[in-house]
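Figure 6 in text form: structure in, sequence out.
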């Protein structure tokens, strides 16, 4: 027997009818949102913000490589929340309206640990999430990175800058991986009409970063709080980063998802550009004036300068960061003190 079709010519199958429960009392939320990598640092803060809206139902898919259930413990068991142990390099079948695709190790130590897996996560993982978005008609946001600009020759970096990236270096699994992920997003958008959003995130810090994450802010705070450790400034110490507090970042990501622009859009804090030596001195001043600072060797291809031009974020999203580094560091210090069991002396 011929299949019933939408246009009567037997070629295009009719779309499935929505579940009869869709409009019943059992269907409570207006928006079902998937957050991949939601057990990680930025992801768990994003989940907190999304869960604060009672109209949202949130599903987290994470393989716990760098994330932890601990970051989500207040939501486990909540009727609007689900947590799935899942690796995005495998397909995932869930019915959702929006996908925040964050899954990917972010600290250089962790993304270099298994470089092949990192590139698979960026490429196959993003393909899988785009396939899901296509199947269910969901809008998808990719958390790309300022690392797509490589070791930038333009300062500050605008979204139009194509970057200066080593395609065969030790960081390539991450920065070239994210560049391919951006390409896939745009190809699915052009070819299949998928609604996409791309955020280029610049160095973000805050509570819940892994204590031994290896990134500079978490390293310096942990070193300042642990006895007999020095702040390890990697050579030459004049390299810069611009540090964005996590609540500002989450606000920017949600505005991008909710708005009308595909991006890519830089989200970061240009007001907080510091050299690594200046950052070490600020941590010393604010957290432990007795801590020593020592120079150590750097790793290959470390970008020498980085600062976002956020004109687009301001104009298109009405977004700009609010939290300065001097305000953000003490908030992170408090969280690290609790987790390390180092109370503040009065
Ligand atoms: N924090 C930053 O400064 C920064 C800057 C630029 C871009 N980003 C991007 O933002 C996202 C989140 O970064 P973060 O700082 O929260 O890092 P994070 O390492 O804390 O979180 C990443 C999460 O993804 C999960 N994950 C990794 N590989 C996975 C896989 N194959 N399948 C399922 N889950 C997987 C991890 O377990 C973890 O929970 C990443 O995509 C990262 O590239 C972060
Ligand atoms: O914002 C981004 O786009 C990217 O930024 C970071 O990459 P990176 O800037 O190299 O992050 P860190 O490892 O925190 O290094 C920042 C700087 O601090 C220096 N550093 C790091 C650690 C340390 O103990 N001491 C130190 O001086 C590094 O040499 C580097 O110059 C993140 O790790 C990436 O996930 C993210 O995509």
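Output sequence:
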């Amino acid at each position: 027997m011929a299949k019933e079709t939408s246009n009567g010519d037997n070629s295009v199958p009719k779309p499935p009818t929505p579940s009869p429960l869709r409009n019943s009392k059992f269907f409570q939320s207006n928006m079902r949102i998937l957050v991949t990598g939601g057990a990680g640092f930025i992801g768990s803060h994003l989940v907190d913000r999304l869960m604060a809206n009672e109209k949202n139902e949130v599903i987290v898919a994470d393989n716990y490589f760098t994330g932890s259930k601990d970051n989500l413990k207040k939501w486990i068991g909540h009727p609007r929340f689900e947590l799935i142990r899942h690796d995005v390099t495998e397909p995932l079948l869930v019915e959702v309206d929006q996908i925040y695709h964050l899954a990917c190790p972010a600290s250089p130590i962790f993304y270099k640990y298994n470089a092949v897996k990192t590139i698979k996560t960026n490429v196959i993982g993003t393909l899988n999430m785009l396939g899901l978005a296509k199947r269910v008609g969901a809008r998808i946001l990719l958390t790309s990175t300022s690392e797509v600009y490589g070791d930038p020759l333009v300062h500050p970096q605008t979204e139009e800058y194509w970057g200066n990236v080593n395609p065969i270096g030790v960081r390539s699994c991450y920065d070239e991986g994210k560049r391919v992920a951006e390409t896939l997003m745009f190809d699915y958008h052009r070819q299949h009409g998928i609604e996409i959003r791309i955020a280029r995130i610049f160095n973000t810090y805050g509570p819940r970063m892994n204590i031994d994450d290896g990134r500079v802010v978490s390293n310096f705070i942990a070193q300042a709080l642990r006895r007999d450790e020095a702040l390890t400034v990697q050579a030459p110490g004049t390299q810069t980063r611009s540090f964005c507090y996590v609540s500002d970042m989450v606000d920017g990501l949600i505005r991008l998802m909710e708005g009308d622009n595909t991006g890519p859009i830089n989200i970061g804090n240009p007001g907080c550009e510091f050299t690594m030596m200046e950052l070490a001195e600020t941590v010393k001043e604010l957290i432990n004036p007795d801590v020593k600072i020592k120079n150590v060797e750097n790793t290959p291809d470390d970008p020498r300068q980085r600062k976002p031009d956020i004109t687009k974020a301001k104009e298109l999203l009405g977004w700009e960061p609010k939290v300065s580094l001097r305000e953000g560091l003490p908030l992170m210090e408090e969280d690290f003190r609790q987790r390390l069991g180092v109370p503040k002396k009065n």
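Caption detail: The chain has one domain: 28-340.
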